[in-house]
Amino acid sequence: MLLFVILSIMKDENLKIIYEEISELHRFQQSGVDLLYNKLNWILVADLVFIAAIMNTTQGSTIATLLASASAILVLIKFQPQVFKNTAQITSQLESVDKLNFLESLIKKKKEALNSNKSRIDELNTVMFYARILLILAIGIQFLFSAPSLVFYLIQ
Questions:
Q1: DSSP element (H, E) containing 44
Q2: What is the pLDDT of residue 67?
Q3: Among 39, 53, 38, 43, CA closest to 73
Q4: Average pLDDT over residues 1-23
Q5: pLDDT tens-digit map of 97-153
Q6: How far is CA 38 from its chain centroid?
Q7: Residue 23's CB: how many other CB atoms inside 10 A?
Q8: What CA–CA distance (Å, rounded) separates 20 from 122?
Q9: Can you tell me the distance from the alpha carbon of 91 to that of 80, in angstroms, rounded to the nearest whole number?
């Protein structure tokens, strides 16, 4: 009987450690999502400023404008509010606090939230990658398009 009590206490302590680690991972994941949205916001601002700059020049490249516009559209599509999976609500946690498998169920909910949110974060990273590539291509093409005028200006 004493062995069962000791094992039960050890299991509870281990579950608490696991819960704390998963909770910390979830917090880091949420801050990572915030950082991703911040980066997407900066890409969108860069796209719009670049498009405005191209529109104000006489040497604007249509292809560069289209690429920057595609990048901005891609970012705007992903700026839609997405619901990231959270863990169990506090009220439901309080209702089940007396259950024997309370910590196990909390850990399970946190694990589900982490896995669900990971796929959304991967999707945001992919969109951000393509938006960056489109913007880099737009800047490069605009540079190549205006390079002859720049060389001509420097020669005179």
A1: helix 2-55
A2: 92
A3: 43
A4: 70
A5: 555 676 777 777 777 777 777 888 888 889 999 999 999 999 999 988 887 776 777
A6: 9
A7: 14
A8: 24
A9: 29
Q: What is the pTM of this model?
A: 0.67
- Which residue in this structure is represented by tokens 């969109």? 127
So what's the pLDDT on residue 18? 76
Q: For the chain, how many residues are written?
A: 156
Query: Is the distance from CB of 130 to CB of 43 less than 8 angstroms?
Result: no
In this structure, the dihedral spanned by the alpha carbons of residues 79, 129, 87 and 103, taken in order and rounded to 10 degrees, is: -170
How big is the chain by its Cα radius of gyration, in Å? 26
Q: How many CB atoms lie within 10 A of CB 4?
A: 8
Q: How many CA atoms lie less than 13 Å away from 143 in the CB half-sphere?
A: 6
Instruction: Measure the CA–CA gap between 77 and 149, rounded to whole angstroms.
Output: 36
Query: Amino acid identity of 129?
Result: F
Tokens 């005179």 — which residue? 156
Do 72 and 44 contact (CB within 8 A), yes or no?
A: yes
Contact 69, 47 (CB under 8 A): yes
Q: Using CA atoms, how far apart are residues 36 and 110, in angstroms rounded to an integer? A: 21
Residue 96 tokens read as: 């089940």
